[in-house]
Design brief:
Layout lengths: L2 H13 L5 H23 L6 H4 L3 H24 L15 H15 L6 H6 L3 H24 L6 H21 L7 H26 L3
């Protein structure tokens, strides 16, 4: 290759800037979100009494928790997509949904209850919850890994686990509109188990997909 041609090639490469990781992640999640919404609409749908449920603060708390998880995980995931980034100084963001849940459980305990605590914790839909959240998360997890792959994470397994938490948070937001178990105890138990499962799947997948 002649020197002039090499210079022109290098100049053209510099003009072709890659999309920012955050933009790729957002576009991928938007596309995957449409798939998850279609799956949710076909298999579950929103609960029939949702207008009444919206007046229940514990119903609203479910969305605050799941969206806090998705938001904090997305921020941490984008941070980890940079070379040599660590969780130090950032991991506390992942505590936000836990603190919201703890506050909700505390408030519920202060109220007079006609249903035993174990019954509220187990709920009526725990088995559906353990299936629905992971299944709805799969398109979102795929999208999150595709988006974060455009970065340069030096901790692919950890970044993959955060991607799993992000996808679980978004999927749980969908499922929360169907779930008739509004007790924070139920959310703290079964939503957390579903999120942990996705974190494990994301960690295993991330160790392979996000390695460069």
């Amino acid at each position: 290759m002649e020197t002039d041609q090499l210079i022109r090639t290098l100049a053209a490469d510099t003009r072709q800037r890659a999309w920012p990781v955050g933009l790729v992640l957002a576009v991928a999640l938007l596309a995957a979100g449409l798939v998850s919404i279609a799956m949710f609409s076909a298999a579950l749908g929103v609960r029939p009494d949702i207008r009444t449920a919206m007046h229940n603060p514990f119903f609203d708390l479910k969305f605050a928790v799941t969206l806090a998880l998705a938001s904090s995980a997305s921020v941490v995931g984008l941070h980890l997509s940079r070379p040599e980034a660590t969780l130090r100084g950032w991991a506390w963001l992942l505590l936000i949904p836990l603190l919201l849940l703890a506050g909700g459980i505390g408030c519920e305990m202060l109220l007079p209850q006609h249903v035993p605590m174990m019954t509220r914790m187990i709920g009526k839909n725990w088995s559906l919850c353990l299936v629905a959240i992971p299944v709805l998360s799969l398109p979102l997890l795929t999208a999150a890994l595709i988006g974060l792959r455009h970065g340069a994470s030096t901790r692919p397994a950890v970044t993959g686990a955060i991607a799993g938490m992000l996808s679980a948070g978004l999927a749980a937001t969908l499922y929360a509109s169907h779930c008739t178990d509004d007790s924070p105890l139920f959310v703290a138990t079964w939503y957390t188990i579903g999120t942990a499962l996705l974190a494990v799947i994301g960690s295993v997948a991330g160790a392979r997909v996000l390695r460069f």
